[in-house]
Design a protein that fits this description.
The complex is a heterodimer. By secondary structure, chain A is an all-beta fold. In chain A, 0% of the residues lie in helices and 52% in strands. In chain A, strands 1, 3, 4, 8, 9 and 10 form a six-stranded mixed sheet that branches. In chain A, strands 2-7-6-5 form a four-stranded antiparallel sheet, with no helix packed on it. The chains are: A mainly beta, B mainly beta.
C-alpha cells in the first residue's frame, strides 16, 4: 500500500531550525522524494528533491537514510513567512503520493 | 515564461451534473498530473498524462476521466457529480514523467457541488 505519513503539526519560533520527517516504507526503487510548501488557496510550491543521502539548496536541506524509508526536511532559521503546510511527495511507480501534510506555525 | 494555468478558477455545480476542468502546462512540459485536494487534506493523485497517454492513475472511480491534447494541455472530466467531489482540483506540469521531475502547480480550480 502506497502511503506516506507526516506529523500533523509543528510549532517553532523565528530563527530556529525545523525538521519535518516523512515516512514512506514502500517507496519504489527508482523513485524520488520531493518536498512542497503550500499556502492557503495556492498550489504547492517546490522546495527540494532527493533520492538518497543529503541534498541542500539555498532554502532547505533534505536527509534520506540508506533504507530510504523516510526523509527529513530541514528548514534553517525559519521566519514568520515560513508558516505554511509542508508536504512530501513520493513516487510509487506510476503513482505519486502526497504525505498527510505538516502544518508549521512560526511565532515571533 | 507563464506558469501553469487552470480554468475556471471557481465553479459551482449541482449533484448529478458533469464538469470539465482545463489546464495549460508550462511551455516545453510534456507531462500533466491532476490532483484533488479536499479542504484540510493533502492533494490526492488522480491521473498523470505524458505524451497524450495515461501513465498513472490514483484510486478514483470511473466517473473521473482525463485527456491530453497534442499541445500538451489537458482536461479533467467528472461525471455524475457528488457532494464529496467538492474540492480544489490542482494541475501540475513537468518536463517529463517520473518522480524525479519537479512538478509545477497551477493555482487550482475550486469546485463546489451543491
Amino acid at each position: 500500500l502506497a502511503k506516506t505519513t507526516q506529523p500533523i503539526s509543528m510549532d517553532s519560533y523565528e530563527g530556529q531550525e525545523v525538521n519535518i520527517t516523512c515516512s514512506h516504507n514502500n517507496i519504489a526503487t527508482n523513485d524520488y522524494i520531493t518536498w512542497y510548501q503550500q499556502f492557503p488557496s495556492q498550489g504547492p510550491r517546490f522546495i527540494i528533491q532527493g533520492y538518497k543521502t543529503k541534498v541542500k539548496n539555498e532554502v532547505a536541506s533534505l536527509f534520506i537514510p540508506a533504507d530510504r524509508k523516510s526523509s527529513t526536511l530541514s528548514l534553517p532559521r525559519v521566519s514568520l513567512s515560513d508558516t505554511a503546510v509542508y508536504y512530501c511527495l513520493v513516487g510509487f511507480g506510476e503513482k505519486l503520493v502526497f504525505g498527510t501534510g505538516t502544518r508549521l506555525l512560526v511565532s515571533p | 515564461d507563464a506558469g501553469v494555468t487552470q480554468s475556471p478558477t471557481h465553479l459551482i455545480k449541482t449533484r448529478g451534473q458533469h464538469v470539465t476542468l482545463r489546464c495549460s502546462p508550462i511551455s516545453g512540459h510534456k507531462s500533466v498530473s491532476w490532483y484533488q485536494q479536499v479542504l484540510g487534506q493533502g492533494p490526492q493523485f488522480i491521473f498523470q498524462y505524458y505524451e497524450k497517454e495515461e501513465r498513472g492513475r490514483g484510486n478514483f472511480p470511473d466517473r473521473f476521466s482525463a485527456r491530453q491534447f497534442p499541445n500538451y494541455s489537458s482536461e479533467l472530466n467528472v461525471n455524475a457529480l457528488l457532494l464529496g467531489d467538492s474540492a480544489l482540483y490542482l494541475c501540475a506540469s513537468s518536463r517529463d514523467r517520473g518522480s524525479w521531475n519537479e512538478q509545477f502547480f497551477g493555482p487550482g480550480t475550486r469546485l463546489t457541488v451543491l
